[in-house]
Amino acid sequence: MNPNHPDMALAVRAAGGENAAWREIYTATQDRVFALLSFHIGNRDEALDVLQDTYLAVVQGIHRYRGEGSLESWICGIALRRARDWKRRFLRRFKQTEAIEEHPELDQGLPQPDPDLGRRLRTALAGLPDRQRSAVLLHEWMGYSFREIGAALGVSEATARVHAFRGRETLRDRLGDTASKVLPLAVQEQRS
Description:
By secondary structure, the chain is mainly α.
């Protein structure tokens, strides 16, 4: 527990039932958490449902936040677990094992020199194991440290680094020469 983390005071206020603190948390995090869920799930309407479930879990579990990373990264960890649960239910319900259909409207947040590269990136990311995809997205797209990613995924910092490294390597293999066009320089080099 890190009582000196800047988000800890906000979390304590929220845990105490202060509506202004909850409003501040939601306003500061919901856009990025929704974008992560939309990309991860592939359907904006379903992402909204998962976002609601996420914030319900945040309200119920705010007392578990320990200040080991940003409050947003803690919320993203909850969101990713909720997204995994949603995917399991979705696949069970429809007995589908293929990638979820593409949604061009979700491409707006991704760097895309052309639509084909965006589709290739989405397909390559969708083919990664959940933890690798999550680590790559949280590190490269959201800018989280490996410590924060480890906390969000429930693994050590070193394990988070391994997931991100393996995910990037797989993306490089799948995207070939176009990897440098699609992926930012940060994806090309490991950073902390």
